[in-house]
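U., I forgot to send this yesterday:
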Amino acid sequence: MKEEEITQDAQAPQTPHRGVKSYVVRSGRMTLAQRRGLEVVFPRLGLSLAQGRLDPVALFGRQAPLVVEIGFGMGGSLLEQARANPDTDFIGIEVHPPGVGKLLDEVDKAGLENVRVYREDALKVLDDCLPAGSVDTLQLFFPDPWPKKRHHKRRIVQPAFIERVHRVLKPGGRFHMATDWQPYAEYMVEAMNETPGFTTQAREGDYVPRPDFRPLTKFETRGERLGHGVWDLIYQRNA
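Result:
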């Protein structure tokens, strides 16, 4: 039976403004499963700014590697990683309700206990919720490239953002980015090279082959068929 779709105003929770936002939350349609994820599962697996600074060990009830993914979209990559790595804990950050609802519905149905989700501005989460030196890997896959020059200020990868990433990563922790927009990839390289405290993990040049642990998304597969390139960048936080 085809799942019923429900129209809903997809407004993100209101948070204090901090500079120019790198995202736009649009109204959209939500399925019953997505609404179930928000209404039934989020109260159990969702996180909020109001909870303040996290204690990952207390949150997950164990000591384990922690991966944080910013802007997980519809959650396919994060779900696949969590399934494949039950001994790793994952925190996803996304403002778009359909994606949050879809991921949480599928996480719940899969019986996964190693995923938690913020439906908040990532900058606020980095500033107010993640302890310094608490994250093993921070992932930023296919962020909006904001291709027009006048919109470059909206790109999430900026020096101040990179400094936030540096703060929350453990020494030796990794910052993994991926984009299908070459000018943005080049911009990311320039921004990382201008911010101290990181070393590229590329053996040659600035980019790495797609690691096996980063799932191939439907979006990426479609792009490959059309001849679009994808650039992965991995930087390690210096000790």
